[in-house]
TrEMBL record, chains A, B:
It comes from Candidatus Polarisedimenticola svalbardensis. Its cofactor is Zn(2+). InterPro entries: ArchSynthase1/Queuine_TRR, TGT, TGT-like_sf, tRNA_ribo_trans-like. This is Queuine tRNA-ribosyltransferase. Catalyzes the base-exchange of a guanine (G) residue with the queuine precursor 7-aminomethyl-7-deazaguanine (PreQ1) at position 34 (anticodon wobble position) in tRNAs with GU(N) anticodons (tRNA-Asp, -Asn, -His and -Tyr). Catalysis occurs through a double-displacement mechanism. The nucleophile active site attacks the C1' of nucleotide 34 to detach the guanine base from the RNA, forming a covalent enzyme-RNA intermediate. The proton acceptor active site deprotonates the incoming PreQ1, allowing a nucleophilic attack on the C1' of the ribose to form the product. Zn(2+) binds at residues 303, 305, 308, 334. Homodimer. Within each dimer, one monomer is responsible for RNA recognition and catalysis, while the other monomer binds to the replacement base PreQ1. Binds 1 zinc ion per subunit.
């Protein structure tokens, strides 16, 4: 392990934590949400826009960048930060989740994951060492270990063996990593508390700079996500950052922060934006709906993003129905502003000791009103 | 006719003219290139970006906006400027060209054009009066008359009848127009000098605030465009703006300015951008090519646009090959900067009396090097 890395807790409010993560590429105020820039681009927006929406850090996908344009190419061009023109912190996933989920043929054994590229069908093997090599070449500030993440529902024995393999792979990742950042471990264990505990304990024995909760939001109901995230968070060390992977809706972020988690990522704000599903202070809306046909008001009167400052709902509806590319961009700017603004509000609430009041108020507000049930 | 409108010639250099067009929405420095915002959006970029690329005026398409979202909706929302968040001048075409070219069934008679929507197959009739009504509702600053524009090659008699109908329709448009801007007439006549002269003479008898050259770039070779544009320009009044419709390549703009034309529009910079064809000081390149795979240099070292300032050729190639939406946007910003920068260079050259030297230098430079032949 190399690289400047430090995590400081600034204040706590209940289990919710306000912290600061210091990397060689700058600071991340936590709790933080990381916009997803799969292929080295947060879809439709520039790094400057991602930043002005409020992001301190972005996530990029190892699997995708390994296949296209290739990690060696990116390394030779000065690393991912320079390549994508984002000089602030980057977290990369291990590539394992996509190798499991995006590819046709996929075989896992103790050695690693054998898969076929979704781009051209070519065969590849992702081992813990290979994943670390790729992430080191990309030059990310936080590199995630390769883990085994079974889809749910799965049997206890299946998850138990994934926990054992995840620990073994985490050890290999820890030893193999030579990049400029730090590796984070990933706790597995599915819905079982004893397996989560075992995974958390085994990984802490390896002493990682940060810990993630994996294997959530992989097919189980929303309640299960909150339960597992909450119980696993309590198993993780106080003084290290805790990252809930791939979650989720605004209310999930609130529950996550309430459980003492510090980092989040999800494609929801960006992907939903491209589909016309927009997060507002009045709840989630689909801008394609006929009711917005001649609506001269801004998307969200409580929002001061570029989209809400300059365009009407009628125009945003026109853009998406006409297939105009500007649609994705304006919608993405708004949704990212919403998500990142929500994180900022939570950070302030924790600082002021008013997090539980904020939480209660949000859950009673129209913003949360339409999130009932498992509507991811 | 209403609205503030004035055209002043500031200086001339040979036939090339440096002028200023004053509208109620602001001034347009001529010779000017108008980026195309078909559906009320220059594809993939914001109005602020269009402006910072150097545009004084944009073009929007009457046919498209009439079908989606509808001109009455736009009127009720305060007009097209407010709708698309572009407060500077807008020119709208008549809708005729698209009704002729984009629709399956299309019948023309003296009354107007009957066509079926390319969106949903619904039947519509576009008359001179209807075209003016739509453009008045949009609130454009320059409204183009409905003209008949036959595809080339066409027989003399066919073009002769189109000229007669175009004059008759121009008269009806002139009488019907009640919008906030001014109407421009369109000279037809195909490749025949006598028909062009007749069309130009008949339209000038109607005394329009500006004149366009239509029926070029509709299937004929590049040499024919330059010839017809040149001879028709000489038939138009000195003190009125002259607009060459739908043209073209950078060299066509240079020939057009050299012929005394003032306004131009073309989808080429924006459409080519989305295909990865980019205009540079070294000539036209396709950024998808393998030679750019690991190229760390900016797209055009002589360009200071956002794209060339922040990104490498390798990254631009990666974006387009990966289907990333940011690709269209970064490429569009560059191509518009190139086109609008070329216009600015020509304006300065005319002011300094060095237009013919500029023209010679450009045509001898690598920038023009790959434009030989009819490679539109």
């Amino acid at each position: 392990m190399s690289g400047k890395f430090d995590f400081r807790l600034l204040s706590c409010d209940g289990r919710a934590r306000r912290g600061e993560l210091c990397t060689g590429r700058g600071r991340v105020q936590t709790p933080a949400f990381m916009p997803v820039g799969t292929l080295g681009s947060v879809k439709s927006v520039t790094p400057e826009e991602v930043r002005s929406c409020g992001a301190d850090i972005v996530l990029a996908n190892t699997y995708h960048l390994y296949l296209r344009p290739g990690h060696e190419l990116i390394r030779d061009l000065g690393g991912l930060h320079r390549f994508m023109h984002w000089e602030r912190p980057i977290l990369t996933d291990s590539g394992g989740f996509q190798a499991f989920s995006m590819t046709g043929l996929c075989r896992v054994d103790d050695h690693g994951v054998r898969f076929q590229s979704h781009v051209d069908g070519s065969s590849h093997v992702l081992t813990p060492e290979k994943s670390m090599e790729i992430q080191a070449a990309l030059g990310s500030d936080i590199a995630m270990v390769l883990d085994e993440c079974p889809e749910l529902p799965a049997e206890y024995e299946r998850i138990e063996s994934a926990v054992a393999r995840t620990t073994a792979w985490a050890r290999r990742c820890r030893e193999a990593y030579t990049g400029p950042g730090v590796p984070f471990a990933i706790v597995q264990g599915g819905p079982w508390e004893d397996l989560r505990a075992r995974s958390a304990r085994e990984l802490q024995e390896l002493d990682f700079p940060g810990y993630a909760i994996g294997g959530v939001s992989v097919g189980e109901p929303a309640e299960a996500i909150a339960r597992v995230a909450g119980l696993t968070a309590a198993m993780l060390p106080e003084d290290k950052p805790r990252y809930l992977m791939g979650v989720g809706r605004p209310v999930d972020l609130i529950f996550g922060v309430d459980s003492g988690l510090d980092l989040f990522d999800c494609v929801m704000p960006t992907r939903n934006a491209r589909n016309g599903t927009l997060f507002t202070s009045m709840g989630k809306i689909n801008i394609k709906r006929n009711e917005f046909r001649d609506d001269p008001s801004p998307l969200d009167p409580d929002c001061s993003c570029e989209t809400c400052s300059n365009y009407t709902r009628a125009y945003l509806r026109h853009l998406i129905l006409s297939g105009e590319m500007l649609s994705a961009r304006l919608n993405t700017i708004h949704n990212l502003t919403y998500y990142l603004g929500l994180m900022e509000t939570m950070r302030h609430a924790i600082e002021e000791g008013s997090f539980s009041a904020f939480r209660r108020e949000y859950l009673d507000s129209p913003a949360a009103g339409r999130y009932g049930g498992d509507d991811r």
